[in-house]
Design a protein that fits this description.
Chain lengths: 318, 343
């Protein structure tokens, strides 16, 4: 009678709890699907996912995490089907390649009864995911602007190097411009450097030829910042309080901040480790006694010499 | 084709040939005027030296591409090849620094490695096209994918970075200068001169042109077609490795985003310069101007905020098409063209 009562209460607490109680007897299978790493940030994400898998499986012997990466949206859709049919997953952590083509495949996984966690890139239909974990692009722009405003004064000049023309880039740029508005700092021009070292180098060379007086650079991204720094050093304009603000949290950049690099004194976090956060939260959905469904927007933390050590992962490729 | 035009229009021929050779140079000159009008800093010494240095990568690769295209081939793998060679160079030098130290010998080892790889990769492309009898487009599309994924694999998806100790030794190869000109520009000039000599003053250059115009006729004329064609790919590979040797010291890193679309830029430079895409006619001098033009367009777009950033590709496309139209269109020789087409 008591057991019956308990079971009834569990059923009432929803599908989430039900799947948890059913899985208690056997292993909890969680599929983790993301794009094949083709650039440094994604490689860092891959590394953090593998670390989280090791750590969580050690902590919970009944949890089985299945990591799958796919080279394109179609392959990812097939991988999702396999996770359901072959592995019969209880939950899915997915960083969609693209929003549109993966919305239906993820919806199908949800129909199989699995808990859905979406990471970084949202789906094009609301309400599919139970848990959402993402970085904060507008906040990255705002935090960068706040720092630069604080160090510059009225009439100072800056240039901006942007990423690949995408929604992400626009969100960062618009928030940066909004925060800079009314500060009296002149934004001389902004050009796309495609989150790429070579483009960062060439665009900055041209900015340096074009503008004789630049006080600081917003490079938005750590890769662009590396190109910018090389161009500044080549032109011998890396002194006089010049500083460059990147973004993401590349290990070399963070190491530089810890060592007191004056040219790149801070960084703004857009962490590849967010996949690990998503895996933690998803496992917690089965293990925690508190509710976990909801939206987790990670902070765009300003990394300074004081807090840099907690964001430094020397073994990660990023 | 050129002969036919010349014969059937003896009066207009002078003008046609003149425009054909001078077209790209005129377009480049006009671009420079526009650049200067937009911002006088365009002609500053610093900017001109940046421009020339930047053109060196695409320019050197494009000299090699001129031979491949003149002989009727195509090489799509050069960008990925450059990325893969940079990656291996960095790995080799980083490993060697432990035993050989951060001296010149380590850098020379890296450069030697680059040349061996470039020549080898070029030979593979050439042998697969000639001995394997696979279309060059497919062979090099295949190797393009292979080299690109190899560099991603070597870098573990991330970025390969050159050891800081060697950077100091290697840095002058990109940032240093000799007689006022940056080293990469000297390499560019050297490659261009050797290329020009090979193309215009040796039997090899004439064989390339002959094979590109008509491969069967070339074969019956006792030209060793397979050997010459393979050699064009080997030259291309060598050019890629030279470009890589001056590219690596710039930022000291290689990743999967290194050299993306260089193949198309090199081919564009070759065609802008007046070489015919289907082969049979090649111009090294034009290729150099084509490479300079491509870099100048990007440079000018960075010098103005009059054009929306999103339209950069549109401007580049328009200028490329206009430049080629300038040299191909028949200026006042319409009748001659019609007759030539009949022939």
């Amino acid at each position: 009678m008591k057991t019956m009562h308990k079971l009834g209460a569990l059923a009432l607490s929803g599908a989430l709890a039900l799947s948890a109680s059913a899985a208690l007897a056997e292993t909890i299978k969680i599929g983790v699907s993301y794009p094949t790493p083709t650039h440094a940030w994604a490689a860092g994400m891959n590394w953090h996912a593998e670390q989280a898998e090791k750590r969580l499986e050690e902590l919970y012997p009944d949890v089985d995490l299945i990591l799958v990466n796919s080279p394109d949206p179609n392959a990812q859709a097939s991988a999702l089907e396999d996770l359901v049919s072959v592995h019969q997953i209880d939950a899915l952590v997915v960083l969609p390649f693209e929003s549109e083509p993966l919305t239906d495949p993820v919806l199908n996984v949800k129909k199989s009864g699995a808990l859905i966690t979406v990471v970084d890139r949202g789906l094009s239909q609301p309400g599919i995911e139970d848990i959402y974990v993402a970085g904060n692009n507008p906040e990255l722009g705002r935090v960068s602007a706040e720092y630069m405003k604080g160090r510059l004064s009225d009439g100072d000049n800056i240039v901006v190097l942007r990423g690949i023309p995408t929604l992400i880039d626009n969100e960062r740029f618009d928030a940066f411009m909004a925060e800079m508005d009314g500060s009296g700092v002149n934004i001389l021009d902004h050009k796309h450097a495609n989150w790429n070292r070579d483009d960062g180098f060439e665009v900055m060379q041209d900015f340096l030829s074009r503008f004789p007086d630049i006080d600081a650079v917003w490079a938005q991204d750590d890769d662009i910042a590396i190109g910018v720094v090389a161009a500044l050093k080549q032109a011998g304009r890396d002194g006089d309080g010049m500083f460059v603000v990147g973004g993401a949290g590349m290990k070399e950049t963070i190491k530089g901040i810890m060592d007191g690099n004056e040219l790149v004194p801070v960084d703004v976090l857009y962490p590849p480790s967010m996949i690990a956060t998503a895996m933690d939260v998803t496992v917690a959905a089965f293990k925690s006694n508190g509710p976990v469904a909801g939206r987790y927007i990670l902070g765009a933390t300003l990394i300074t010499p004081e807090n840099a050590a907690s964001f430094y992962f020397p073994d990660s490729p990023f | 084709m050129t002969d036919a035009t010349a014969k059937s229009a003896p009066k207009g021929s002078l003008m046609t040939i003149d425009l054909k050779t001078a077209g790209p140079a005129i377009a480049l000159f006009l671009l420079c005027v526009i650049g200067f009008l937009l911002n006088p800093a365009f002609l500053s010494e610093g900017n001109l030296s940046n421009l020339l240095t930047r053109s060196a990568f695409i320019g050197i690769i494009a000299v090699g591409a001129t031979f491949v295209i003149t002989a009727g081939g195509i090489d799509l793998s050069v960008g990925s090849m450059a990325a893969a060679i940079s990656g291996v160079m960095i790995i080799v030098m980083n490993t060697a620094v432990e035993t050989m130290g951060p001296g010149v010998s380590t850098v020379l080892l890296g450069c030697g490695c680059s040349i061996v790889l470039g020549v080898g990769a070029g030979w593979i492309n050439g042998a697969l096209t000639t001995k394997g009898k696979i279309e060059a487009f497919i062979v090099t599309l295949g190797t393009m994918g292979i080299y690109r994924s190899l560099v991603t694999y070597f870098a573990d998806g991330g970025t390969l970075s050159l050891d800081f100790a060697i950077r100091g030794t290697y840095r002058p190869v990109y940032y240093g200068s000799f007689l006022g000109l940056p080293i990469p520009v000297w390499v560019f000039i050297f490659v261009a001169l050797v290329g020009w000599f090979l193309m215009n003053r040796t039997a090899f250059g004439r064989y390339c042109t002959a094979i590109g115009s008509n491969e069967s006729v070339a074969k019956y004329s006792a030209i060793k077609v397979d050997r010459v064609k393979t050699l064009t790919y080997v030259i291309q590979g060598l050019c890629v490795s030279l470009a890589t040797i001056i590219y690596v010291p710039r930022l000291g890193s290689a990743s999967s985003s290194t050299g993306v679309l260089w193949e198309l830029e090199a081919i564009a430079a070759v065609i802008i310069g007046g070489t015919v895409l289907k082969g049979g006619y090649g111009r090294i001098g034009g290729t150099i101007i084509g490479a300079l033009m491509l870099t100048t367009i990007g440079n000018i777009l960075n010098f103005t905020d009059m054009i929306s950033n999103y339209l950069n590709g549109t401007m580049q496309g328009l200028i490329i098409i206009i430049a080629v139209w300038l040299q191909r269109a028949d200026w006042g020789a319409g009748k001659a063209k019609a007759q030539a087409q009949k022939d």
